[in-house]
Amino acid sequence: MIRCVIVDDESKAREILAEMLKLYCSSVEIVGQAYNVESAYEMINNLKPDLVLLDIKMPDGSGFDLLNKFENLDFKVIFITAHEEYAIKAFHFSALDYILKPIDPSDLIHAIEKVTDVGSVNSINEQFKTLKDNFYNNNNEKGQKQDKRIVLKTTENIYIIYLKDVVRCQSEKNYTYFYFTDRERIIVSKTLKEFEEILTEFGFMRIHRSHLINLKFIDRFEKADGGYLIMTEGSKVEVSHRKKEVLLNYIYQLGEL
Asked: DSSP secondary-structure letter at 83?
């Protein structure tokens, strides 16, 4: 059984969530419910749960404030949040799990299954740090945006990567290959579309159904054979016909600066 603590300042929300867990997630045992940061901190220290379902906004602080109180996180966390785009992107970058309010049973089931599948909690401290950095710094100036970090989970490791070090991403069925200038590629079991949705505003462009590139690593556009890109580390990247005009417009604009 997964021993779980629910943290939410609204009693009705806690009741609904507890009932949903009983109905749909038989592997979860609710061992406590807390209504604010202080009560949750005391409860978690006393009960030592495996999992905390954590509301972000509470009267005496945030879910982040609660987690900051722990020197080392030795439990898994699923955040509960309202539908705020900047928050959702921060969760995607950190690869931490979240559920949107109002909670849909299928989303809850999926989130519980995901944290159950991941055997170790050792990575959560770095993931939480990445989440905080991206959550609070989301409105950085454009020039600072590639200081952001993203968490990439593979079957064997969890990597914390700076966007400025990613040269390009390439899809292979339901996997995405990340390529860098100075390290081995990383293979992630997520589609390229998922990464396109969060990386486009950070200097990345989808130039082909199989390729998402970091624009700062373009070396040149070769016109031969219908046209393709050469990246600064030497890789050759195909450009689709419908994306060629957009890409060339971007390159021409650089020449006008």
From this structure: -
Q: Maximum CA pair distance of the chain? A: 67
- Angstrom CA distances, 34 to 27, 51, 117, 130, 194, stand at 21, 13, 26, 26, 34
Residue 157, Cβ neighbours under 10 Å: how many? Answer: 9
Say which CATH superfamily domain 2-134 falls into. Answer: Response regulator (3.40.50.2300)
CATH superfamily of 163-256: LytTr DNA-binding domain (2.40.50.1020)
Cβ atoms 158, 126 nearer than 8 A: yes
163-256 shares the fold of 2-134: no
Q: 10-residue block means of pLDDT along the chain (257 residues)? A: 95 96 96 96 97 91 91 91 74 86 93 75 78 67 63 89 95 95 93 93 94 96 89 94 91 71
